[in-house]
Amino acid sequence: MASSTHNHRHLATTAAPPPTPSTQHPNPLSTSSDPSDVLSRLLHRLPPTLSLPSRRSPPPTTTTTLSPPLISLSAQNPSSLLSASSQLGFFQLTSHSIPPHLAHSAESDSLSLFTLPREQKHLYFPQNWPLGFDCDDDDDDNDNGTATESFCFDSTCSAESAELSLAALGEFTREMEKVGLEVIEALSCAVGFENPLREDPTRVCSLMWVSEESAGDKPVVSGKFYPYVVGLHYQIRCQRYSLLADSGWVSVSPQIDSILVTLGDIAQVWSNGKTKKVRGRPIPCLENNMKNTRCMSISLLVTLPLESTVSPLPNPRPNIAYGEDSRVDNEDGDTSSIDMMENRAFNSFSFEDYAWRVYHERLPSKDPLDRYRV
User: Fold this and answer.
1) Quick one: 108 exposed, middle or buried, by C-beta within 10 A (0-12, 13-18, 19+)?
2) pLDDT score recorded for residue 162
3) Are 178 and 97 in contact (CB under 8 A)?
4) Alpha-carbon gap, residue 137 to 125, rounded angstroms
């Protein structure tokens, strides 16, 4: 999914390139003198072996497990969706088009990946950020007694070897993407913002993240954080998850065969701060009897192409749910949308720069969107 102009950042080199200004992509942060921005741009140009070390911290133990609100898109009940998105940032879909047998077949495809020898994993799925195979025990700072392997695919779910078939995982990815686009459309109508993906499908890309963690004595935040609009996680069996929401860590237990939907940071910016969000993907909770076992998770992230610019989106119609009239009369007597620039909660920013930074910070304690808040 990454552009060819971005590949030079991931070639193995013995020294970092000189910190000259980048001319590949327009960057609204390029003229900033903020030390954190300068450091971010410098680290952006480093090869993977010289990138930021992993930052991990175990999610706190929670005594209460929530059942996410039940939402049915077919019921056309925007008030329930509005309540869940504005107060929590997550919910579960009980009516969707994904058949259970497809989810199980996709899981079988995914399980076969982790039985491959390490050299074949690197050979069949070369790193092309953010796509490819990744293993946390390749990191020098990984001393917590765990190992997390993950694969990131685009919607084709293709491998370099013709001998390896991931047909079920590919079909599952494409069907989940359709559900994700339906969620974004319903969300834009319920919360009140223009859906940029409605008429232009080239403005969306989907990433299927498959990860397996070998658990040690204590849980850790596994995998890498990548920005997204919505994340979808099919509940194949009874399983609890930890979510890092705006309100802090929460434990949730969705119904079997439902889809746990998490709203991401891009959705929060698009809605101009009206929705809550979940940072990163759900983390499977390891019960006491699951120590020294392996736990797999499959997450579909509906996200954006790297060259995108992220900014709040205007409301094209009156937002009845919020009790606001988003249309006013101008001097000619015509009606037009209120310019959201006057009341923006976020400044615009480069998606590529943001994605690169948060991917390597791995769920830092500070909200990465804070630097863009007005």
Assistant:
1) exposed
2) 80
3) yes
4) 17
